[in-house]
Amino acid sequence: MTSKDPYEILGVPRNATQDDIKRAYRRLAKEYHPDRNPGNKAAERRFKEVQAAYEVLGDPQRRAEYDRFGAGGPAPEFRTWTTRGAGSFEDIAFDFGSLGDLTGIFEQFFRRSSPRVREAGPRKLRPRGPNIEHEILITFDEALRGTTREIILSTQDQSRRSERIEVRIPAGVRDGQLIRVRGQGQEGPGGRGDLMIRCRVQPHPFFRREGLDLLLDLPLTFAEATLGTRVEIPTPNGPALVTVPAGTSSGTKLRLRGRGVQDGRSGQHGDLLAVVRIATPKNLSPRARQLLEELDRELAQRPRADWPV
Fold first, then answer.
1. Nearest-angstrom CA–CA distance, 52 and 208
2. For residue range 212-226, what is the model confidence (pLDDT) as tens digits?
3. Right CATH for 132-201 from 3.90.600.10, 4.10.320.10, 1.10.10.10, 2.60.260.20
4. Which band of pLDDT confidence, cut at 50, 70 and 90, is reported for residue 98?
């Protein structure tokens, strides 16, 4: 196999963004996929090259190490990386033990090994233990702001000891979202698996969530919605005034920008949407009924005038 640079294989410059690399990989993988090229050995080989190149460049950390210790550079500390995609490439081993020869990199990537125990020179990469899933219940406010929980796990050995782990729940976590705590799962030949924390968020008495936006029903009287008003409403960060324009209809959403959920990773804020709900009076006094009937005649509204019936 000739020496090839992963940037050349994917057809991207060395300063390409991760999105550029991903787009190039998807285009080439689709073009040379064995399902689209049955019996074409050249396409199959090209497909494997594309997979190998993306295994290096698709991960920012591996890409940085390749850029630093590329052809002709010093060899980094030995490690083995493997593909984790679906299909028959799951058991391909990729040895970064010698970056001075790119031919060796790709030859080692295509070397088949056992799906569970991979040979890498004198060392073996053994499978880690199973992951553990643990469910926790948090309040709506804790989900918005982030919190910590102490998890108590029982060990799997004969000692039956308990292990206490403090887990940080990031701000903006969604109901059902999984939080991964690496290296806190069950023991295995290659070390411990991960602890997967599934967050269950209690409903809030006023707010409900849609993505990063919070929705709040805003009850208004008929007069308030018709004439317009200013209303103080609750928000996650304290009360705020919202202006209701005159003639506001039921179902109208009044937006308070930046008062919604903050994404714990990106820092992006959603909005708070106050949804107008006009409160219709149920028990009318004779005088109130008379006034409403007079008002209806005075307004002479025909909201269904364009109906065919």
1. 45
2. 999 999 999 999 999
3. 2.60.260.20
4. very low
